[in-house]
Amino acid sequence: MGTTQLESVQEPKYWHLKTVLSEALDSDFAVGAVLPNERDLAARFGVARATLRQALEQLELEGRLHRRRGVGTTVAPPRVGIAVSTAQHDWTGGVADEAWQPIDCATDTAPAAVTAMLDTSAEEQVHVVRRIRVTHGQSVAAELLYIPASSVPELSAIDSPSGPARARSVLRELHRLGLEGQDRSVELGSARADDAKELDRLPGAPVLVVTTRYFAAGGTAAVSVATYRADTCRLTFGDSGALEITHDEQARQAS
Amino acid sequence: MGTTQLESVQEPKYWHLKTVLSEALDSDFAVGAVLPNERDLAARFGVARATLRQALEQLELEGRLHRRRGVGTTVAPPRVGIAVSTAQHDWTGGVADEAWQPIDCATDTAPAAVTAMLDTSAEEQVHVVRRIRVTHGQSVAAELLYIPASSVPELSAIDSPSGPARARSVLRELHRLGLEGQDRSVELGSARADDAKELDRLPGAPVLVVTTRYFAAGGTAAVSVATYRADTCRLTFGDSGALEITHDEQARQAS
Fold it and tell me: Is B185 exposed, middle or buried (0-12, 13-18, 19+ CB in 10 A)?
């Protein structure tokens, strides 16, 4: 990483610095390498600490750097592509390698936005299943899945009222419904304290919030609000999911 | 908005403050209302300015607040759902109400990541069409669409070499290819200076970067890198796009 004086550049200084730093990351640093401290970096590039910090923040947004307390700033590995489009995968919990792991279940009211999608009343108690999505041994997403009692009519009331066993019972009943379709939205959010803990992030860290409506039996059978780590995840939406549905449907129609 | 002393709370102070502020926004403020200044707000809630700023930053990430220089902090309207899943829409430029507007075209090399997806060499010149997506009169996304010469073999060389007319010519030729499929990824990014200007944001503002591969004639015909405003947009992915492809395919198979 050479010394570059940025005094004469017309565009915002932090922006140009970001570009220069980005190129330096490509050429001079391996994944996992620790960057020099802020004071040294600022001196090397002839910029104020505030300018350096702005550039580092942007590289963090872009997933190029990780900044952790006590560890410092390290070069991030490329983001991992996480498939979110395969209906069957998310609905049933996926294969062992890339699974949603049920960790808890509670009975509670849903937030107003979820209530509106479920078409339930604000006071109605729903099952709230909490799952963690694990990919290559790392937690990449935390989910709350809201399921009205009407979606799982045959759920046994004598089961334990909470815990992972309860979560599995609720999911088993839910999956007996034939999934008819789904829609999704993705937006930027900040990690809630409980999600942040599961994802090894600080509360308020930027996350990608994926909200999914699952349609079955002519209505909305469940709503999922999943929080993906924005620093390490790239969400992928393929045609493959749609094609799989197509094949399933053709098989069903043919049978 | 009442006075709440937060000294005794165990969870991170900024986090609790964010929750309290969020409720205050729901109950006491209309969309577009200007919040009191930071000093007054900090005093009212009995917190340090730094704590207040952390909470405001998180509410901004969640799309609840807009912060603009000179204007101050205002209550944001709910995010607008922007459909990105309907293949035909993005491919052909969409309907008049929610259109991708071609604004320029250049001949240039593509970034390494795009070159890898297009399966072209690093030195190969491709058409780079720049489009802006406008919804309800507002620019919500800026796009660079990379198109190898091989995807538009009949493009006239005597056209003007750049500008919106050239962009339209390239798109017209591209759309003669039958679209066979697409895949997409969504990740967090920071706005490049040119995109930021189009989107009325500062360079480095958080954006959602949607990368789309368009498949035609057995290969990747084009790659789109679109930058959506993360503060105002919620990206939606419906089943409808997939179902439309299905119907087209069935019709083609039947004919």
Answer: buried
